[in-house]
Specification:
With about 100 residues, this protein is an alpha+beta fold. It has one domain. It is about 35% helix and about 30% strand. It has a five-stranded antiparallel beta sheet. Strand 3 and strand 4 form a beta hairpin. It comes from Tepidimonas fonticaldi.
Amino acid sequence: MHMLYNSDSFAVVHILANAQEMAGAAEGGAQRPVMPRHGFEIVDKRSGKEVYLDGSWAELFQQQIEAWQQNTPTQEEVEDTLESYASLAQTPVVVH
């Protein structure tokens, strides 16, 4: 799990769901192929909701991150993009 972004309004975490399985496969320990699986959790701190992006949504968000690495955005541009993803959020953040 890697914190990618943290502000007063949003937090973004990159989650490698099967990182240990992937490491075992790379070392020759796995007998079956393991597809890489990862996702991104975006927390809208203002609304107290979160959304988990995986599959094609995660791929689109990964492309956005790569674009940001090429052309450094302003904080406002980042937050506007996160706002569009946060509009998908339905799950309230629950502290255990």
